[in-house]
Design goal:
It is built from 8 helices and no strands. The chain is mainly alpha-helical.
């Protein structure tokens, strides 16, 4: 799809990249998603926004590349959007990584995120792992 956009001479916008990364994320197309993310910055000069990073973190995390996703987040300028940490928290839940989930929850608490859903999500994850 991305190549078709380029073939017709259309210039992709931020929202185009967000949609493409989302599609790669939901399809598990890690290689394609990484390439699109790279081109977004290098070829089109579009700086990654929080939503782009959320998609890339989920793309990596849902493939079980939690450490790589975590390191990506650590490489981002501070403050890191809580949505990005939240994306990795959900991946930890899906992959069953309670240790990294605890680290991420601490990062979210330290950021004093106004999104209380993350603290509730972490409590639920812990409860589920304890009961399960």
């Amino acid at each position: 799809m991305f190549n078709e956009i380029l073939r017709y001479g259309l210039v992709p916008a931020e929202s185009t990249f967000s949609a493409l990364l989302s599609a790669c994320c939901h399809s598990g197309l890690v290689k394609d998603g990484r390439e699109i993310f790279r081109k977004m910055g290098e070829e089109f000069g579009i700086e990654a926004r929080a939503e782009h990073n959320v998609h890339l973190v989920k793309l990596l995390g849902m493939e079980g590349r939690l450490e790589e996703a975590y390191n990506l987040i650590l490489s981002l300028p501070e403050p890191v959007d809580s949505g990005i940490w939240g994306a990795l928290l959900s991946c930890c839940d899906a992959c069953g990584d309670s240790e990294l989930a605890e680290i991420i929850a601490q990062k979210l608490f330290e950021s004093r995120s106004e999104k209380t859903a993350y603290s509730h999500a972490f409590k639920y994850i812990c409860w589920r792992w304890k009961v399960g």
